[in-house]
Amino acid sequence: MHLPRTVLTTALLAALYVPAAHAEVAIDVIAGSEITFEGLLQADGNWFHNDVADLNGNSNNGNDSEFELRRAELILKGKGPGNIDWVVGYDAKADKFLDTNLRYKFGGNAATFLQAGQFKQPNSLEELSSTKNNDFISKATVTNTFALGRRLGVAYGTGQDNWSLTGSAFGRELTRNLAHGSGYALRGTFAPLMESGQVLHLGLSWADYDTDADTLRLRARPNADLATVRLVDSGELRDTDRMRTIGAELMYLHGPLKLQAEYFDASVKRYDHGDYSSSGYYLSGVWNLTGESWGYKGGVPTTGLPSEPASGQWQLAARFDHIDLNDGSVNTAAAIPVVDGVLGGKMDVWTVGVNWYWRSNFRTSLNYAMADSSKYSSSAGGFVDDKPSSVQARLQFFW
């Protein structure tokens, strides 16, 4: 897809007027609404070291590398009139709408609100965290596979500084031909420890939705977003009815250190086959080498600006992912092996990385990911192990 050059040029020119201490452009006050303009540009490069599968086998460049403008997000936000907030977001790269909704804050308290439109559904700590401040270039395998993203719907939320409860009813994505299937989601968070420089966060979420076309497919890349091959894959699951996902969250913030973990358990109800179950988790840690502490608001962590803008903020990060898409067995004793159930495969991925935030608007990231997967192959007549790795780099500009 070719990006609209006029849209991106306008965004870049507007961003040049961003003062160093602010992250958005103030536009005007219209009809009692304070309007601001925000944006995010991300350019990625992936270099693959293949083992069995060619991770970018569909590439036209003939190399084991991929380069792509990942995001070109343009966002208008409004505060007011009164207790109303609104947002209209669009990704010019993906050609789809982002958050596009109205929110009413009861009594002016952002913790108690009613929201309508397209928004991220209440599930998954990593999914709800800001895209521009994700700890790693690729989200965790389980987040990409199981977490719900933006959908059209209605949500009600309430809470205080140390707890929150949000429920929603949703349908399809606002942009046609993307995610669909109506359902419900609920997320609750509690911080039993919340004091200056130290937070312990606990969270639970539940989502249940119609698979709509009665077909579902769960699969995952080896934590490299530009890879065209998935090493674990359930295949097309037909006669599916609904998918239910339960998520558990744990996060500990202490000064410059952030430790985070999530677990997902998913179950798919099927008409003519036994129900299909899958699961996974990740564990991660991030350390601000330059000493900046983390924030916490609305049940998600926040990343502050560098203490010394000229030298910037440095982070070291490490993560371990595990996903299991197997829910069946294979009889290898038969003349022709027979699979009972679904053997989508298992995969572990180690990722290490470094991030550098410079001043208020720039970030560079470098990640190294090592995958270890095993999946049954009928053509090979057994399980195939694949252990590729990749180097990933990102340049980011935001305002």
TrEMBL record:
Q: What's a Pfam family this protein contains?
A: Porin_O_P
Q: Where is the signal peptide?
A: 1-23
What top-level branch of life does the organism fall under?
Answer: Bacteria
Record Gene3D superfamilies: Porin
Q: What UniProt keywords are attached to this protein's entry?
A: Signal
Name this protein carries in UniProt: Porin
Q: What is the originating organism of this protein? A: Stenotrophomonas ginsengisoli
